Amino acid sequence: MATLLFSFEDLSSKDKAAKQAVRYFSRAGANVVQQDVPTTTKRSSGVTYRELQLTFADSQSVAFRIKQSGDIFQVLLNGKVLPIKNQDDHVKAIAEIVQAMDAGRSKFQKMLAAASVKPPAGIRTAAPKMEQALTEKRDSLKTAIAAVRAELSSLADALPVTA
User: Fold this and answer.
1) Residues near 79 by beta carbon (within 8 Å), at least 6 away in sequence
2) 3-class SS at 80?
3) Residue 2 falls within a domain, yes or no?
4) In terms of C-beta density within 10 A (0-12 exposed, 13-18 middle, 19 or more buried), how is residue 78 classed?
């Protein structure tokens, strides 16, 4: 039985238990690309907790809510609470979390693909100005071509006709 006990007061990504959790995830086949430990303490359902957030290579995220006693009180997978069967054995619990990530991967990827991102209000696209600039350039090229053709015809008229 492997249990992870986090240091509530000194919780950081350099915490021994946090490093061990990342190692267990790697062994289970889920590569952690980012760890984040917000400094704020939160309270929910009468429990004071801090979070350890892990982001994986496929953009899925897992958040461990850690009580003051140092044990995990809740697990969130992509922002939703994930009930864990093997609460006492963290290695099995992490394998269970990875299995849930694998099962929901296609749904999560579809959700990411469907999410539309709007640019901030202050940013405008260059398309209208680009279209106007290209139209002006096209018109100036048309007048330049017409001027060259007129000059060619005047030069052709000035040449003596030989028989």
Assistant:
1) 61, 63
2) strand
3) no
4) middle
**Which H or E element spans position 57?**
none
- Predicted confidence (pLDDT) per residue in 54-95, tens digit: 888 888 888 888 888 877 788 888 888 888 887 777 778 888
Residues 137 and 160 in one domain: yes
- The residue type of 91 is V
pTM over cut 0.85:
no
Mark whether 141 and 86 lie in a shared domain: no
* Domain enclosing residue 157, as ranges: 123-163
Total domains in the chain come to 2
> Residues 6 or more apart from 107 whose CB is under 8 A from it?
none
DSSP codes, 24-41 = HHHHTT--EEEEE--S--
Q: What is the pLDDT of residues 103-120, one digit of tens each?
A: 888 888 888 788 777 777
Asked if residue 11 belongs to a domain, the reply is no
Contacts with 103 (C-beta within 8 Å, 6 or more apart), sequence order: none
